[in-house]
Sequence to fold (328 residues):
Amino acid sequence: MKLFRHAASFAVLAAAAAIASAQSTSDASYPNRPIRLIAPSSAGGPVDVIARTLSQGLTEVLGQQVVVDNRAGAAGLIGAELVATGSPDGYTLLFGFSGPLVIVPHLGTKTPYDTLKDFAPVSLAAQAPYILLVHPNLPANSVKDLIALAKQRPGKLNYASGGNGTGIHLAGELFKLTAGVNIVHVPYKGAGPGMTALLANEVDMMFNGIPPALPHVKSGKLRGLAVGGEKRSPILPDMPTVAEASGLAFNTTGWYGVLAPPKTPRAIVTRLHAATVKALAVPSVKENLGRQGVEPVGSSPEEFAKMIRGEWVKWEKVIKAAGLKGQG
Fold:
């Protein structure tokens, strides 16, 4: 009996060692087949465009095809869930952003994952500041003008967004809270339709990404008042930040990063992080991102995880203060 127990114990240890060895070999040879990068958005939008730019750089660096897979729906939850419940082998990754990760979960929507537990952050890839836009017919030539006008006309001014829970929606809510103004949110089915409404003077203002706004600002069809990040955009160096222009403690920007399923081996996360940093430094990738008004970043997994936690707390406070529960 004692001999049997020893034999059984040896068999268990041998099996564990074989699994560990296979895992180590697998990690060392990673990647040896194409990688799927889930973009939880429709094709053609900013998330998709930035994801495809990064995927080209990753393909070059890793020597394996990195294919963008668009999985739109449920404000990004569908695509994000695919990765949260995916196999932790490094072949299914998420190109994540604020909406499905740190905004929608606070809106009362049933979220099929825990953002802070069900992903392995790899790297913050890029940031893109929003621009505060108004229709030229609105008598506001600065952020201070806009705030004064909104206070004169409480509940009369409105702003467009790409839908409840989107980054540009929450940028508007943060503006309302920090400026102490009452402006009305008008959600559209995407930032594109929201921009069309602003151009048609159906709404007074909106936050949006710089690339789609720039042609209209240059043509005079829209007026850009400020950018929403902590520093000025290289594309619009003469345009102040909202904080500079108003004195408000306002800082929000679109951000995009790579995440893996939970329990992805550290060796694979490390490999992906190094590849992401190198991909962002590829000249064609930097150039393409720059044309889109996007700044490449490339943070460590720990830095990205810390940023996600900070964004989680920030938007939880804004959503509660704005009474947005149940609007997801």
Observations:
- The radius of gyration is 23 Å.
